[in-house]
Structure formats: C-alpha cells, structure tokens
Amino acid sequence: MKNKYSIDKNNQLLIKSPKSKIPLKPKGEFAINKNNQLEFYLNEPVAWRKLYDLPRKIAFVGNWSLNKDHDLELKLNKTRNQVGEEKIVLKGEIISTSQDKFAFEITGERYLKILNLSGTWAADEKNRIIFKVQKKLLPDTLIFGLAWQINQNQRIEYVYEKINLKTRSKTVQSLEFEGFWDILSNHKLTYNITGSSNSKFEFRAFISNPNLYPSKNIIKYRLGIGVKGSTNENARVISLYGEWKFSRDLGLIFSMDYGDGLIRKIEFGAEVSFNRNSIIFSLKDRVGEPLGITLTMTHKFINSLDPKAFIRLKSFQRRFEIEAGLTIPF
Prior knowledge:
- The protein is mainly β.
- The chain has helices spanning 46-51, 299-305, 307-319, and strands spanning 4-7, 13-16, 28-32, 38-42, 57-59, 62-66, 72-76, 87-90, 92-96, 101-107, 112-123, 129-133, 140-145, 148-150, 156-163, 170-177, 179-185, 188-193, 200-207, 211-212, 218-223, 236-241, 243-246, 252-257, 263-274, 278-284, 290-298, 326-328.
- The longest helix has 13 residues, at 307-319.
- The chain is elongated and about 95 Å long.
C-alpha cells in the first residue's frame, strides 16, 4: 500500500493515505540518518499508527537538491512504499558550511531541528559552488551558483536573498567558507576548506596579471573566460593580496593575511634570470611546471626586503651570468 507525501509551509508532514479521505498530519520530527536519508519519527499512539498502517519511522528514498529560494528539497523516488515524483520541500535556513557538512535549520509549530548532511564542498565546471551529498552510489548535488565573492578577510562568502514566508519580505543572507587559497597549477585556483582533506574549491581560472611587481602585492585571476558554457555574467576577476618573501632556499612565498592574526603562505619554485638593475623570477608550481607568472624585483628592493637573500642572489649572478637562467626549487 503506497502513501503520498507532501509538506506544508510550517514543515508539517502531510500523508495522503488510502485509508484516509483527508491528509494526515502526524506529530513527530524529521531527522537525517548516517546514509544522508531523510526520516520522520512519528510521535503517535500505536493504535493510531495501526489504523492507518503507518510505521514508527518513515524513511524517504529520493534525491536532494537546493531550490531557488535556498530551501532543502527531496524529490521522492518510486518505491514499494512511495508513489514517487512528489517533492518534500523543507523550509529553513542554512546555518553552517564548515568542513564536510551542510547544516540546515527547520522550524515547525512546536519544534526546531537542525539537519546535517555529510559530503564534500567543491566547484563545478562552471565555477559554481556545490555540495556533493554522500550516497552509496552517485552523490546528490546541491547547487549554490555563482553568487560568491571574496570578503575583506580574503575568504569566500556566498550571498543570497531569502523570502520570509510570513511577511513576504526579502532578507540578504551570507555564508562564509573558512579556508585559504593556493596556486597548484596553471589555469587553476584552489581554495581549501579549513579542517577538511576532501572539500576544496578548484576554480578554472586564468592569470590576469602575469607580470607581477612586489610593490603592488596583488595576484589577479580571471574566472569564467574560456570555460565551456561561460558568459560575461560569470566572468570575474579574483584578487589575492599578500606580501612577497623569500624562503630559506630562495624560493618565493606569497604571505596572505586572513584576519585575526591568521597568516597562510603560498609557496613557489622559480627560474631566475638577471637584468642590469633587476632580477626576474619565473614562477613554477610544486612539480616544477611553469605558471606563466613572472615577478620582477629591483636589486634595491631585494636588498631592503632581505639583505641575506640579496647577497646570495648576487653570488648566483656572478656564477651564472653566462647562463640563460637559474632554477631555484622550493
């Protein structure tokens, strides 16, 4: 015997049972099990449940998504106990995006509940923020879209509008993803989620300012250009701010301030060439591949930045002045 399921604006589960002419409104609460499956625990007497042939716990089988109002939606599959094709739309607020979790708060007439989905945060081929809900087979994907930006602490912030069902007014809400930037290869810009070894945003990007100068302390990447299906609307420039420093082995470090005293470093290898009054560093990634970025420093600037590094580089210049360049590892 199959039931039809829906939900009202107060997150009340409605059950259309063959044994009832009107939808049932059972008391109970929603929960998420370890398999990211939605469940509803009925808080009703045994006799009432037997009358309508209902179990103590209803487990829903379906696929998760995020609708345009940023509510959590489950499209039900056709099963032995489900008619299928119905949608359970849980209305609430996203309250956390930390590590490998998506936390969503729903409220009913008599309860407040936080639902936690486990999975991984990522960026799709269109540079949209997504959350892949972990499942036994293929993951379900919650698509957040392109409404993200970098805030004053150089962290990714997702901004969206939410409609209040009671007042019909719109409020602006935001989600901050705690993490740090890295440049691992050409045409890719990575944002690692703090505390996770699985979640990260790998954006398809192209260097916007390949010729860098340390006085400006900025690296710019352009997103969206050259990406399949991209438009001018999702093409944007991402600016990373920091300070250039030398590592012990004369590799280069771009030191970024994320606020509250938190400093993270992006490290580069380099191929060095010498001009009359300047030194040019052609940056390389962690496996020694060129990034298409050069950093030009004057002798005077290097001496004021790091006298020891300046002395070592001058020594290299004398030794390798007839060579095309000098490779400096990490």
